[in-house]
Design a protein that fits this description.
With 279 residues, chain A is of the alpha/beta class. Chain A has helices spanning 3-9, 25-37, 57-68, 73-82, 95-100, 108-117, 133-141, 157-163, 188-195, 212-220, 230-242, 246-272, and strands at residues 13-19, 43-46, 89-92, 121-123, 145-150, 170-173, 203-206, 225-228. An 8-stranded parallel β-barrel of chain A has the order 1-2-3-4-5-6-7-8, surrounded by 8 helices. Chain B folds into 2 domains: 17-52 and 88-202, 3-Layer(aba) Sandwich (Rossmann fold); 60-85 and 207-398, 3-Layer(aba) Sandwich (Rossmann fold), CATH 3.40.50. Classes of the chains: A alpha/beta (279), B alpha/beta (415). Bound molecules: pyridoxal-5'-phosphate. Pyridoxal-5'-phosphate is lined by residues 86, 112-113, 115-116, 191, 231-238, 310-311, 355, 357-358, 381-382 of chain B. Chain A: It comes from Haloplanus ruber.
Chain lengths: 279, 415
C-alpha cells in the first residue's frame, strides 16, 4: 500500500494545503509542521507558479508572497527535505514548472527530483487527463501518485478517462470556480461524489471548505477526506497583515487544523451510527 | 478529443482546469459544426454581419508615397477601416455569434489595448448579449478612450490589479471567471491563443483578411506580393493575414513583434522589457496551450513590455510559433522608438494614423525594404485614435525625430 493510500485507510483524512515559502522559508516550514500536529493526514504543498489560473484571490496572494520571498522549484525541493513531517506530501503546481525543470522538455526530471526529496504525489490543476500521459509515465517510473480533479461539470466519457489515470485519491471539486474559503457549502459535492462512488481510490472533497462543520458534512455525504486550502492561507495572510510572530500564526494554524480534523471525525462517527430512517 | 487534435507540431493542446474541459469540448463541437460545416447557415450569417455591421470588405490601397520612398510597390490592407478601428471585430463578432448559436447567455472577454474588449462590447450590443470585460489596471490607465467606448456599448469593465496589470493577468482572471460560470458563459478570447479550439477557430474568423487581400492583390497588382508583413502580439491579425498565403511558397511572411526597449531580460526581476516571444521565447505552457513563451529558467512567466499594449504579451499563438519553427514565417522585431517613428511616418506620408501595434510593421519596412522584394503587402491592423494620449506622452519623453512640433501641447496638461 502506498503512503497516500495508507493515510486514507483508517478514518477520514484531513488534507490541508499551504503554499511553500509563504510568507518566508522558515515561517512556512513551521506552518506546515503545525498542520501535522493539528491532525493532517496528507499535506498538499503548493509550489508557486506565476500564472495560477485555478486559484482565487486568497491563494494568489500566498503565491505572490512566496515568489517574492524567493521560492523556486529548486528551493522547494530543499524545503521538502527540510520539513520535519511524517505524513505523505502531494506537490500542487502548474504544468509549466514541471515541464521546464532540469533539462526541460518533459516532466521526468522534475518527478525524479521530487520523489528523491520525499514527494509522494502530484496534483496539477492545468493538466487535464488528455495531456497527462508523460507525467503519468514519470510518476509510475518513480513510484508517485497522480491525483486528478473531478469537477461538477465532469460527466460521461470524461469520468472514465480520468478514472483510468487517477491514483492516490480523486480530488472532488465541491463547486465551480476557483479556490477560496466560503461560508456556505455547495450541494454539488454530493452530486459529484455520487459520480465517482464506484472508483477504487479514496474521494477527497475540496473547494470552499472552511469550518469543522463543513468538514463534518462533507464526510457525512460520503467523502473519504476533506481538502482545505484558503481557510488556512487566510490565517497566514492575517498574520502577515498584523505582523504577528510566526509562533502565534503556527499555533492558530494548528488550532484550525484540529477544528477541521475533528469535524471530519464527527462526520465519520455519524456515519457509524445506525441511520434513524433505516432502522 | 476529436479528429482535429489542436496540435501544431508540438505546440497547442488543452492545458486547462478540468472544470473547463467539458465547455471546451462543447466549443470544439460547435466550431466543427457551425464554422467548418456551416450548419444552420452560420457562416453565411457571419459573413453578412461582417459586411453590413462591420463594413467588409476592407480596401487594399496602394501607398503611393511609401512606394516612392522605397522605390517599390507598397500595398496596405486597411483593417483600420473595419468597424471599431481594428481587425479585432472579425473574431469578436464570430465568437459572440457562435455563443448565440450555442445557446450561451453571457459573454466575457479579456482585453489588452482595449481593442478586443471594444470589439466584443460592440458585437454584444449588436447581438443583444450581456458582456463583461477584464482589463489590467495599467492598461485601463493607458487606454482610457477604449474603456469609455466599452462602457458606452453597455459592457462592464472589471479592472485586474494582480501582477503588472496587463494582458497576461487579464487573461488569467477571465479564465477564472469562466471556470466559475462555465455553464452559461462563453469566453471570447482575443487572439489565436488559449486551448484548442481557440487558436484554430480565431484564425478561421480572421482568415477573411487574407481571403480578401490575396484576391485584391491579384486584381490590383496582377500578382502575388513578394512579402507580406504584419505585427504579432498573440498573432490573430497575423494568422488572419497569413492563412491564405501559407501555401504560396514564393511569398515571404514576416511577423513583426515588439522589441520594446531591449531584447535583454532581467531574470532577477522576472521582467523582459519586450514582447518578442517568437524571437526570444522558449517552449512552455501558458494559458491553455503549449507554445513559445517569455519565461525564466524555472518556467515562471515574465512580465513583458511594449509601448503598444496590444503587443504586450508573454505568449503567442501555437500555430504561428510552429510556422516560425518550420521556417515558413520569419519572426522579426522592432523596438519602441522606431515604432513611434513609424507611427508618425504613416500619419505624415499617407494620412493614416495607425495603431501603435501596426506601426511596428510600418517601421520594419523602413529599415528593411531592400530585402522585401518588389511588391510588399503591409497590414494596417488598426487605427491609432486609441493611442493618441500615449503617443503624445511618449513622443514628448523620447524626442522622436520625425514627430511634429510638440510646443503647441506644452502646458495643456497632457504631460
Ligand atoms: C490594432 C491591433 N493590432 C494588433 C494587435 C495584436 O493582436 P494580434 O497579434 O492578436 O493580432 C492588437 C491587439 O490588441 C491591436 O489592437
Amino acid at each position: 500500500m502506498s503512503r497516500i493510500s495508507a493515510a486514507f485507510a483508517d478514518g477520514p483524512a484531513f488534507v490541508p494545503y499551504l503554499a511553500a515559502g509563504d510568507p518566508d522559508y522558515e515561517s512556512s516550514l513551521s506552518y506546515v509542521e503545525a498542520l501535522e500536529r493539528g491532525g493532517a493526514d496528507v499535506i498538499e504543498l503548493g509550489l508557486p507558479f506565476s500564472e495560477p489560473i485555478a486559484e482565487g484571490s486568497t491563494i494568489q496572494g500566498a503565491i505572490v508572497r512566496a515568489l517574492e520571498a524567493g521560492m523556486t522549484p529548486t528551493r522547494y525541493f530543499e524545503f521538502v527535505e527540510d520539513l520535519d513531517v511524517d505524513v505523505p506530501l502531494v506537490c500542487m503546481t502548474y504544468y509549466n514548472l514541471i515541464y521546464q525543470f532540469g533539462e526541460g522538455g518533459g516532466p521526468e526530471d522534475f518527478v525524479r527530483r521530487a520523489a528523491a526529496a520525499g514527494i509522494d504525489g502530484f496534483v496539477v490543476p492545468d493538466l487535464p487527463a488528455e495531456e497527462a500521459e508523460p507525467l503519468r509515465e514519470a510518476c509510475d517510473e518513480h513510484g508517485c501518485e497522480l491525483v486528478f480533479i473531478v469537477a461538477p461539470t465532469t460527466k460521461g466519457e470524461r469520468l472514465e478517462r480520468i478514472m483510468s489515470q487517477v491514483s492516490g485519491y480523486v480530488y472532488v471539486q465541491a463547486r465551480l470556480g476557483t479556490t477560496g474559503a466560503r461560508t456556505d457549502l455547495s450541494g454539488r459535492a454530493e452530486e459529484s461524489l455520487e459520480r465517482v462512488a464506484e472508483w477504487d481510490v479514496p474521494k477527497a472533497v475540496g473547494f470552499g471548505i472552511s469550518t469543522g462543520d463543513h468538514a463534518q458534512r462533507v464526510i457525512e455525504a460520503g467523502a473519504d477526506g476533506v481538502i482545505v486550502g484558503s481557510a488556512l492561507v487566510d490565517i497566514v495572510a492575517q498574520g502577515v497583515e498584523r505582523g504577528d510572530p510566526a509562533v502565534t500564526v503556527a499555533s492558530r494554524l494548528e488550532g484550525k487544523a484540529r477544528e477541521l480534523k475533528e469535524g471530519a471525525l464527527r462526520g465519520a462517527a455519524a456515519n457509524e451510527r445506525p441511520h434513524p430512517e433505516r432502522t | 478529443m476529436s479528429s482535429h487534435t489542436g496540435k501544431f507540431g508540438e505546440y497547442g493542446g488543452q492545458y486547462v482546469p478540468e472544470a473547463l474541459m467539458p465547455a471546451i469540448e462543447e466549443l470544439e463541437d460547435a466550431y466543427e459544426r457551425y464554422v467548418l460545416d456551416n450548419e444552420d447557415g452560420f457562416m453565411d450569417d457571419f459573413r453578412e454581419r461582417l459586411a453590413d455591421f462591420g463594413g467588409r470588405p476592407t480596401p487594399l490601397q496602394k501607398a503611393h508615397r511609401l512606394s516612392e520612398r522605397y522605390d517599390r510597390d507598397v500595398y496596405l490592407k486597411r483593417e483600420d477601416l473595419l468597424h471599431g478601428g481594428a481587425h479585432k471585430l472579425n473574431n469578436a463578432l464570430g465568437q459572440v455569434l457562435l455563443a448565440k448559436y450555442m445557446g450561451k447567455d453571457r459573454i466575457i472577454a479579456e482585453t489588452g489595448a482595449g481593442q478586443h474588449g471594444t470589439a466584443t462590447a460592440m458585437a454584444c450590443a449588436h447581438l443583444g448579449m450581456p458582456c463583461e470585460v477584464y482589463m489590467g489596471r495599467r492598461d485601463i490607465n493607458r487606454q482610457r478612450p477604449n474603456v469609455f467606448r466599452m462602457r458606452l456599448n453597455g459592457a462592464e469593465v472589471t479592472p485586474v490589479t494582480v501582477g503588472r496589470g496587463t494582458l497576461k493577468e487579464a487573461i488569467s482572471e477571465t479564465m477564472r471567471d469562466w471556470a466559475t460560470n462555465v455553464e452559461d458563459t462563453h469566453y471570447v478570447i482575443g487572439s489565436v491563443v488559449g486551448p484548442h479550439p481557440f487558436p484554430a477557430m480565431v484564425r478561421d474568423f480572421q482568415r477573411v483578411i487574407s481571403e480578401e487581400a490575396r484576391e485584391q492583390m491579384i486584381e490590383k497588382a496582377g500578382r502575388l506580393p513578394d512579402s507580406v508583413l504584419t505585427c504579432a502580439g498573440g498573432g490573430s491579425n497575423t494568422m488572419g493575414l497569413f492563412a491564405e498565403f501559407v501555401p504560396d511558397e514564393e511569398v515571404d511572411l514576416y511577423a513583426v513583434e515588439a522589441g520594446g526597449s531591449s531584447l535583454e531580460v532581467d531574470e532577477a526581476e522576472g521582467v523582459a522589457p519586450n514582447s518578442a516571444t517568437l524571437s526570444t521565447g522558449t517552449e512552455g505552457v501558458l494559458h491553455g496551450s503549449r507554445t513559445r513563451v517569455l519565461q525564466d529558467r524555472d518556467g515562471q512567466i515574465m512580465e513583458s513590455h511594449s509601448v503598444s499594449s496590444g503587443l504586450d504579451y508573454a505568449g503567442v499563438g501555437p500555430e504561428l510559433a510552429n510556422l516560425v519553427d518550420r521556417g515558413r514565417v520569419t519572426a522579426v522585431n522592432v523596438a519602441d522608438d522606431p515604432a513611434l517613428e513609424g507611427f508618425h511616418r504613416l500619419s505624415q506620408l499617407e494620412g493614416i494614423i495607425p495603431a501603435l501595434e501596426s506601426a511596428h510593421a510600418v517601421a520594419y519596412v523602413e529599415e528593411n525594404h531592400a530585402d522585401l522584394g518588389e511588391v510588399i503587402l503591409l497590414n494596417i491592423s488598426g487605427r491609432g485614435d486609441k493611442d493618441l494620449e500615449t503617443v503624445l506622452e511618449e513622443t514628448h519623453d523620447r524626442d522622436v525625430e520625425n514627430a511634429p512640433e510638440m510646443e503647441t501641447f506644452a502646458g495643456t496638461g497632457g504631460f
